[in-house]
Design goal:
Elements (H helix, E strand, L loop, with lengths): L4 H9 L1 H7 L2 H10 L5 H8 L4 H13 L3 H13 L3 H8 L19 H9 L13 H11 L7 E6 L6 H8 L3 H7 L4 E5 L5 H17 L13 H15 L4 E7 L2 H5 L6 E6 L11 E6 L6 H12 L8 H9 L4 H13 L4 H9 L17 H10 L3 H8 L10 E2 H8 L3 H13 L4 E3 L6 E3 L2 H10 L4 H15 L10 H16 L3 H8 L2 H11 L1 H10 L1 H26 L7 H5 L7 H14 L6 E3 L9 E5 L6 E6 L5 E6 L3 E6 L5 E6 L5 E6 L6 E5 L4 E2 L8 E4 L5 E6 L5 E6 L13 E6 L5 E6 L2 E6 L5 E6 L6 E6 L5 E6 L4 E5 L4 E6 L6 E6 L5 E6 L4 E5 L11 E10 L2 E8 L4 E5 L5 E4 L7 E6 L5 E6 L4 E5 L5 E5 L6 E6 L5 E6 L4 E5 L4 E5 L8 E4 L8 E5 L4 E6 L5 E6 L5 E6 L5 E6 ...
Parallel strand pairs: 1-4, 1-5, 2-3, 3-4
Antiparallel strand pairs: 6-8, 7-8, 9-62, 10-31, 11-12, 12-13, 13-14, 15-16, 16-17, 18-19, 19-20, 21-22, 22-23, 23-24, 25-26, 26-27, 27-28, 29-30, 30-31, 32-33, 33-34, 34-35, 36-37, 37-38, 38-39, 40-41, 41-42, 42-43, 44-45, 45-46, 46-47, 48-49, 49-50, 50-51, 52-53, 53-54, 54-55, 56-57, 57-58, 58-59, ...
Pfam families: APAF1_C, CARD, NB-ARC, WD40, WHD_APAF1
GO molecular function: ADP binding
GO cellular component, one term: apoptosome
Length: 1189
């Protein structure tokens, strides 16, 4: 039969919208199940290359199909929650399908009522809610029995409402008249033995015969065989177009009694029952739960309450039982009699006290636990034992057959057969959208098993662990498939439940396990394990547990990177006293003996941090983050347009919402933590809720603070902030305000200051200012102490004590503007969020001031045997000379009035030079600090300085475009003039004292050669169209290389100054270059993080390093490649950028990566044997790295 005109027109009318939105693969599964589409047709549609082309093909097929296909397509849309699309098709549904959105009682006429009563069909329950989608699906299947006999099976787990659904499906006059004019006959079966079954059939036969004339009455059949024949005769001859409904069938042998070539609708928990009978077969699966609104409607009807008047416990009951019609109805009936017991019945459900939830209806079992037990008791004994093992699963967890194959020690094929039996009996559910299939229990089934096997829980979990250990004796699975994911995620859970404490210690105090689980699952799951099982682990060693947890918390954002970092290398940055470090060092030493590279951070003990957790929740800037009021959750939002909620203990993501159409600027929890409000650049505010307070303060990006009475919304007073700043035309914007815990002070952020005002007098009590280059972005007062947190645009977060007017700590770690800070409700933690895409948590109870001292990146290093001496300016603009190994300060100058921009130590004398922004050059004696020389002459910032080999000569270059060659002890100076722009660096052409030639390069694109003795310019070429960013002379002195912002590198002959090769291919500024020690290779690095290795002889490209694995900042090296060094044998290359990488020169492959706390490394100093590496990051942390031998 062809598709009717109305539905055909509807499909054509809305064809474009359907093609744009539907995912055909989801819908076709349902249509194949309904029998309106063949597998071949599905394959043909799936072969289309794009989703849209598949949608076009599906609609073309539908237009060639009949009404049943249209109905099935409609039901599939409803099933897959395409409600808007289903509504478009709804009004043109063919006649065979009643209106799916009105009560199915539309066809329930007196004729139908009489017909069903005569056939023994149960009446509707007193409390009834319609399930139109399911009813329509059953009716659609029943229409298929119009011409020929067959079976329609309605199956589902206990209490899913199968019987009510079957009865409701036949309450329709059109269905009865067209398909079953001979009547509808209901027979309740249940778990019967043969005599009872015989009685049932005798009763049915008597009823059928009684409806005929009195001569048709026969004696009752005496056996099942006779009964079967009598029923066959009646159904075929006397009632040829009648429907027989068999309710609650358990046994296939019972069903065979009714295999009499008639029309049968049956309800069962066992999907496979009809495999034993002949004829056409159709199925309808009944979901285990109602949607929340339907379930609440049942409770409202039972308790005679409006939906909106139901208590909060109503939703909790529905969620606890996942909308089980049986449970909701049982509890509803109990509440009808005892309406004040909402909380009691909820607690009984939560505590799995199923015996207390007893029937008040015509259901076959006295209590919920009996209904559950009945399904299990029909299994063979060995399968009952296997089913018991599901007790160990966590709620809502799906497992593949392979996991159960390990648990049961059976072949996977045998396990799949057993699981299919459980699924067919509605004892288990299968997610067939996954390959391989995943299996899971309904919450009620799992709760029942836990209650039934409570005394055996420990032994059941022990069995799981022992079976795992036996199967994976050679090491844990690392394949990343569903089986691997289950074991990696839940092994610790099973160990804890089995009380296998020693096994749990060994596993969780293992760096190998940390590496495997964090790679497969991510760090948040691991941190959760240490939090959840902390009480067990602390019995063994609380300090070790704390060390592992801290390692993961502070390195979690690194462990989420791909390619996955080397966990052993990360762990080598842990304190020397840490068990994490001890295990990492042992592994590093073992692997180093086999040629692997590892580097130990020697001076890490001199670095302190308040940070306790680093989270990378978004791609893009994070504009706002906040604690929930109970402190357990953190919400964040930003440029990614999403809102995310995660655990404050571990960073595990709980929720992600595509919140707005533009960047999300702010988020906040409601007082009960149930709601989240967000506001966005799209001019929308979503989900707003607030709690009244005594007063509130309004800041509308103006120069005035407005204080209001909350009760009346009247302005109470204003405080002018503009008056605090010097007079000027520039507007003063107040960015935020915060109240102190006592409510007596209010603090606001404006320009580069945080201002504290007395609320009563409006007088300013305190002004906290930062330098002129940084702005205060946000401030927040601690709710439990006198601490104030301030966020700055210079990436810093500071903690101040308002009573003492003293900075307590610098929270260093962010790599871009810090947008917001907030204390936890108990004041023990502080969160900060930044444009660097991270949220950081800090422990305020461990405040200290030592972290306030950090170094600038312009530095010099001396390697003398085992001694490592470092000179660099600190953040207070003092020059420091430190022992690199211990971190101790050997010398510290007084604070300079002009910023120190470069430094160099003399290799011969105990002297150090510093160059300043005002052009001053000073030479100081170390360690006395005595001023040996002040060398005036430069008129702008001194950018680079270097002593000669003998220490008698000092060379400096400056933004003033000159180079000066000093006889620093006498003050004599040779000025090298000729560059037109700043000279950032220079290089002597050789290390020989007799060679006085100097190479200089500049942003003006030129390279020049000078004689340092005479000051004569020997050579001058315009090497590049853009600024020259680096230059290096080959070790043999024959060549030099230049790199430029014009994205090229060039090779020049030192004598002829001819361009030997021009290297092209970089896609960004070429920032650095370095010759190999044999002068045969040249390495170049660019601002996209790419490193290229070139053949010096013929100019060919040998390798491109870093091409794989861009990080989240869209760079191949975490930033610009700023420095490069070859090992003495030219087999290795080290590079700096956002982090430090070591490379295999021949293969161009990364061998190791060191991730500093900060980023933007400017330079790395390398010892002559390539064993020690020194650098300083953007937040001033010094790194002395030594290769592990």
């Amino acid at each position: 039969m062809a598709l009717e005109e109305r539905p055909r027109s509807c499909l054509l009318r809305f064809r474009h919208k359907l093609e744009e939105d539907i995912k055909p693969s989801y819908l076709m599964d349902h249509m194949i199940s309904d029998g309106v589409m063949t597998v071949d047709e599905e394959e043909k549609i799936r072969s289309q290359p794009t989703r849209k082309e598949q949608a076009v093909a599906l609609l073309e097929l539908l237009l060639r199909k009949d009404n049943r296909a249209y109905i099935s397509f409609y039901n599939a849309l409803v099933k897959e929650t395409y409600d808007d699309l289903a509504n478009l098709l709804h009004d043109d549904l063919p006649y065979v399908l009643p209106d799916a959105h009105k009560s199915s009682s539309d066809g329930y006429t007196p004729y139908v009522q009489a017909m069903l009563s005569e056939g023994g069909v149960p009446q509707r329950p007193v409390v009834f809610v319609s399930r139109p989608e399911l009813v329509n699906r059953v009716r659609e299947k029943l229409y298929r029995l119009q011409k020929d006999p067959g079976w329609v099976t309605v199956f589902g787990m206990a209490g899913s409402g199968k019987s009510i659904l079957a009865a409701e499906a036949v309450r329709h006059q059109g269905l009865i008249e067209e398909c079953f004019p001979g009547g509808i006959h209901w027979l309740s079966i249940g778990q019967l033995d043969k005599p009872d079954l015989l009685v049932k059939i005798q009763s049915l036969c008597f009823r059928l015969e009684q409806s005929l004339d009195s001569q048709s009455l026969h004696r009752p059949p005496n056996s099942l065989d006779e009964a079967k024949e009598r029923l066959r005769f009646l159904m075929l001859r006397r009632y040829p177009r009648a429907l027989l409904i068999l309710d609650d069938i358990w046994d296939s042998t019972v069903l065979k009694t009714f295999d009499i070539h008639c029309r049968i609708l049956l309800t069962t928990r066992n999907r496979s029952l009809t495999d034993s009978v002949s004829g056409a077969k159709y199925e309808v699966e009944v979901e285990s739960g109602l949607d929340e609104n339907k379930a609440l409607e049942i409770l409202a009807l039972y308790t005679d309450t409006k939906l909106h008047g139901l208590p909060e416990e109503a939703r909790s009951i529905v969620r606890e039982c996942k909308g089980s019609p049986l449970v909701v109805s049982l509890i509803g009936a109990l509440l009808k009699e005892k309406p004040n017991r909402w909380r009691y019945y909820l607690s009984q459900l939560q505590q799995k006290q199923f015996k207390r939830i007893r029937k008040s209806s015509s259901y076959d079992y006295d209590a919920l636990d009996q209904a559950m037990a009945a399904s299990i008791e029909v299994l063979p004994e060995d399968h009952q034992e296997l089913y018991k093992d599901f007790t160990v699963l966590e709620q809502d967890i799906k497992v593949p057959a392979k996991v159960l194959s390990v648990l049961w020690d059976l072949e996977p094929e045998e396990v799949e057969d057993i699981l299919e039996e459980f699924v067919n009996k509605s004892l288990l559910f299968v997610d067939s959208h996954n390959k391989p299939y995943l299996y899971y229990l309904h919450d009620l089934q799992l709760d029942f098993l836990v209650e039934q096997n409570r005394t055996q829980l420990e032994s059941l979990h022990t069995k799981v662990v022992h079976q795992y250990q036996q199967h994976y004796r050679d090491g844990p699975p690392i394949s990343g498939d569903e089986e691997c994911l289950y074991w990696i995620r839940f092994l610790t859970y099973h160990m804890a439940k089995a009380n296998l404490c020693q096994e749990l210690y060994s596993l969780m105090f293992s760096l190998d396990w940390v590496s495997i689980k964090s790679k497969i699952m991510g760090p948040a799951h691991l941190i959760n394990d240490y939090v959840e099982y902390g009480p067990i682990l602390d019995k063994e060693n609380s300090e070790v547990r704390s060390q592992f947890q801290e390692f993961l918390s502070l390195n979690g954002h690194q462990l989420e990177q791909r390619p996955f970092p080397d966990v052993v290398q990360l762990a080598l940055s842990q304190p020397h006293t840490s068990e994490v470090y001890r295990q990492a060092l042992l592994q590093a030493q073992d692997r180093a003996s086999r040629g692997k590279l590892y580097f130990d951070w020697l001076n890490k003990n001199s670095v302190e941090s308040l940070s306790r957790l680093v989270i990378h929740p978004h791609q893009g800037s994070i504009y706002s983050a906040c604690f929930s009021h109970d402190g357990t959750k953190i919400a964040s939002c930003g440029a990614s347009r999403t809102l995310k909620v995660f655990k404050s203990t571990s960073g595990e993501k709980l929720t992600e919402i595509q919140a707005h159409d533009d960047e999300v600027l702010c988020c906040a929890f409601s007082p009960d933590d149930r709601l989240l409000a967000t506001c966005s650049s799209d001019r929308k505010v979503k989900v707003n809720s607030c709690k009244p307070a005594k007063m509130f303060c309004s800041v509308l990006f103006c120069s005035v603070l407005h204080l209001f009475e909350a009760s009346s919304a009247n302005e109470w007073k204003t405080i002018s902030v503009r008056d605090v700043f010097a007079e000027g035309d520039e507007e003063v914007l107040v960015k935020c305000s915060t109240w102190t815990a006592d409510g007596k002070r209010i603090i606001c952020a404006a320009r580069n200051a945080a201002l504290v005002f007395d609320v009563e007098t409006s007088g300013m009590l305190l002004e906290i200012r930062t330098n002129r280059l940084s702005m205060v972005q946000f401030c927040h007062a601690c709710p439990t102490s006198n601490l104030l947190a301030i966020a700055y645009s210079n990436y810093a977060v500071e903690l101040w004590d308002l009573e003492a007017n003293k900075k307590m700590a610098d929270c260093s770690g962010h790599l871009s503007w810090v947008q917001r800070v907030q204390f936890s409700p108990d004041g023990s933690q502080l969160l900060s969020c930044s444009d660097d895409q991270t949220v950081r948590l800090w422990e305020t109870t461990k405040v200290h001031t030592s972290s306030a001292v950090c170094l600038k990146r312009d530095s010099d290093v001396l390697f003398n045997d085992e001694e490592i001496i470092v000179s660099a300016a600190d953040n207070c603009n003092r020059l420091q000379v430190r022992d690199g190994r211990t971190g101790s300060v050997l010398f510290q100058s007084e604070e300079k009035s002009s910023r120190i921009r470069c430094t160099c130590m003399c290799r011969q004398a105990s002297a150090v030079v510093l160059g300043q922004e005002d052009g001053t050059v000073q030479v100081l004696e170390v360690p006395s600090g005595k001023l040996l020389a002040t060398l005036p002459g430069h008129t702008k910032t001194v950018l680079h300085c270097k002593f000669s080999q003998n220490g008698q000569t000092l060379i400096t270059s400056s933004e003033d475009t000159t180079i000066r060659v000093w006889r620093w002890q006498s003050g004599e100076c040779q000025v090298l003039q000729g560059h037109k722009e700043q000279v950032r660096c220079f290089s002597l052409l050789s290390s020989s004292p007799a060679d006085t030639r100097l190479l200089s390069w500049s942003f003006d694109g030129t390279v020049k050669m000078w004689d340092t003795e005479s000051g004569e310019k020997l050579q001058d070429i315009r090497a590049h169209r853009g600024a020259i960013l680096s230059c290096h002379v080959s070790p043999d002195g024959c060549l030099f290389a230049t790199t430029s912002a014009d994205m090229t590198a060039k090779l020049w002959h030192s004598e002829s100054w001819e361009c030997v090769h021009a290297f092209k291919g970089h896609q960004d500024c070429v920032r650095s270059c370095r010759f190999s020690w044999d002068s045969r290779r040249l390495a170049t690095g660019d601002d996209n993080g790419e490193i290229r290795l070139w053949n010096v002889k013929d100019g060919s490209l040998l390798k491109i390093c870093s091409r794989e694995g861009k990080d989240g900042m869209d760079s191949l090296h975490g930033g610009w490649v700023t420095d490069l060094h070859f090992s003495p044998d030219d087999s290795l290359l080290v590079s700096t950028g956002g982090y430090i990488k070591w490379w295999d020169v021949e293969k161009g492959e990364a061998l190791q990566t060191f991730y500093p706390t900060g980023t933007a490394l400017k330079r790395i100093h390398v010892s002559s044997d390539f064993s020690t590496f020194v650098t300083i990051d953007s937040i001033g942390i010094l790194y002395i790295l030594q290769r592990v031998a």
